[in-house]
């Protein structure tokens, strides 16, 4: 199944890049978060693709499912068709496609696709984590830890965290790239202290877990 999900992400990436190279407009949702034609196109492609390979229900950032309907789902797809829309709008290349399969509240499959570079990170439960089909693993023994922060969601609380733990080298990335870079050993710690959404983290969560990293709810 993982190969099929990677292919679905690749098709969505092609559509995203067509918009990325054009003069596109931006609209804003009720929570003031931006959305573009690329988000919506990728959403359609991913939903159709996942429906073609399984009968599992699908939750995405762009397709609302009432909690009363999904609260008892045991297995479902959890998708962010374009994670890092602000990075997309700024054209810095640091946005991703996130597709996760959830079973009993935990990710058992995750694919994170980077449209600009065609890099793909993926993992399935108990089978390791991979980048472009090569195994990745964080076995860092660095004494001077390397931290990461968001391009657009940094806070004073995060800066205080780095200061408190004497983490002086901070590398900024967009979207779920931060967790993927952690998984491949480029980074040591990523504090996210102002909340996030499950579709932002579900796919990269299992990649991190399978690469010897942990996501901790503080």
Q: Brief description of this entry?
A:
The chain has helices at residues 2-20, 37-53, 67-70, 85-90, 156-164, 177-183, 198-210, and strands spanning 26-28, 34-36, 58-60, 75-83, 96-103, 106-114, 119-124, 129-131, 134-136, 146-150, 169-173. It is α+β, with helices and mostly antiparallel strands and 218 residues long. Strand 5 (96-103) and strand 6 (106-114) form a beta hairpin.
Can you walk me through this structure?
The protein has about 220 residues and is of the alpha+beta class. About 35% of the residues lie in helices and about 25% in strands. It is built from seven helices and eleven strands. The strands form three sheets. The chain has a seven-stranded mixed beta sheet with strand order 3-4-5-6-7-8-9, sandwiched between helices. Strands 1-2 form a two-stranded antiparallel ribbon. A hairpin with a 2-residue loop joins strand 8 and strand 9. Helix 1 runs antiparallel to helix 2 and helix 6 packs parallel to helix 7. It is globular, with a radius of gyration of 17 Å. The model has no long low-confidence stretch (mean pLDDT about 95).
């Amino acid at each position: 199944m993982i190969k099929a999900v990677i292919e679905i992400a690749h098709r969505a990436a092609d559509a995203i890049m067509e918009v990325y190279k054009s003069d596109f407009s931006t609209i804003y949702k009720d929570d003031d978060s931006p959305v573009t034609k690329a988000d919506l196109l990728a959403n359609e492609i991913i939903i159709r693709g996942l429906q073609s390979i399984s009968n599992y229900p699908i939750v995405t950032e762009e397709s609302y499912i009432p909690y009363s309907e999904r609260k008892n789902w045991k297995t479902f797809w959890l998708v962010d068709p374009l994670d890092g829309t602000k990075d997309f709008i700024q054209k810095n290349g640091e946005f991703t496609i996130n597709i996760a399969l959830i079973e009993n509240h935990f990710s058992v499959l995750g694919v994170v696709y980077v449209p600009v570079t065609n890099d793909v990170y993926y993992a399935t439960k108990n089978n390791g984590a991979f980048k472009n089909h090569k195994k990745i693993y964080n076995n860092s023994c660095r004494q001077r830890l390397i931290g990461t922060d968001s391009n657009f969601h940094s806070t004073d609380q995060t800066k205080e965290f780095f200061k408190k733990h004497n983490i002086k080298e901070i590398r900024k990335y967009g979207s779920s790239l931060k967790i993927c870079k952690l998984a491949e050993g480029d980074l040591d710690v990523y504090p996210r202290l102002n909340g996030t959404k499950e579709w932002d983290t579900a796919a990269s969560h299992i990649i991190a877990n399978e690469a010897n990293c942990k996501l901790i709810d503080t």
